[in-house]
Amino acid sequence: MTNQELKKTAIEVRKGIIEGVHAAKAGHPGGSLSATEVFTYLYFEEMNIDPKNPKKADRDRFVLSKGHTAPGLYSTLAQRGFFPVEDLKTLRSIGSHLQGHPCVQHTPGIDASSGSLGQGISVAVGMALSAKLSNESYRVYTLLGDGEIQEGQVWEAAMFAAAKKLDNLCVIVDNNGLQIDGRIEDVNSPYPIPDKFRAFNFHVVEVADGNDFDQLRAAFVEAKATKGQPTAIVMKTVKGKGISFMENQVGWHGKAPNDEEYAIAMEELKKAGEE
């Protein structure tokens, strides 16, 4: 896809995020919106996947380690054709296949149930190791939050991935600077993030603007070309990106817009799409 097509798709993904959390009156829009471009790039450009055959054996795998940002992943999967876009309005409803965190048993396109922070990267490492042991060519991608990497299990998994030279693994850190309790450096600073992954023998790609498709494209090309070690893409993003009153506001980590806020957000996205 061209960057213009990717941008248009990302706007539709953002609309789906707002639709879902507004309908549910609950959910996590902030981190879903900061990661919208990386979700879009992965599912429309980077990964070998087939919506008509979600379980095909040679597909690339994706693990949403920061599972609370499921609205962003669900909206992307819907836009990609894994299930109807209308399903997004059933987010968190009883009987819906779209629960508050991804569930591999119920939702087409989900490769791992997640939500317990820190654990998704371990699952992704296991998948990458399995591919190596089976001489399979698929790649494994996992998205972590910058607050999430305060969890110790993340670094155990990182150490193992490097020790086993899992160059089919790509760890993405969404560095939007905010977690539920405030700024990450005020809660429990993980900085400097790139240096930590380098110390764990990762190849590190730093992305100055993770909401920019040119920069994301270059990062994923570099990751795929890296041999002999796993890659960490550390991308600076804006929490709540694309909705003016949500951007860089920690309060939108886990809060749904009311009817008035919903209308403003959807109007902003409509205008962005027209532009």
UniProtKB/TrEMBL annotation:
Cofactor(s) needed for function: thiamine diphosphate
Pfam families for this protein: Transketolase_N
Limits of the Transketolase N-terminal domain: 13-265
InterPro entries linked to this entry: THDP-binding (IPR029061), Transketolase_N (IPR005474)
Superkingdom, taxonomy of origin: Bacteria
Keyword set, alphabetical order: Thiamine pyrophosphate
PANTHER family in the record: TRANSKETOLASE N-TERMINAL SECTION-RELATED
Similarity-based family: Belongs to the transketolase family.
Protein's UniProt name: Transketolase
UniProt source species: Pseudobutyrivibrio xylanivorans DSM 14809
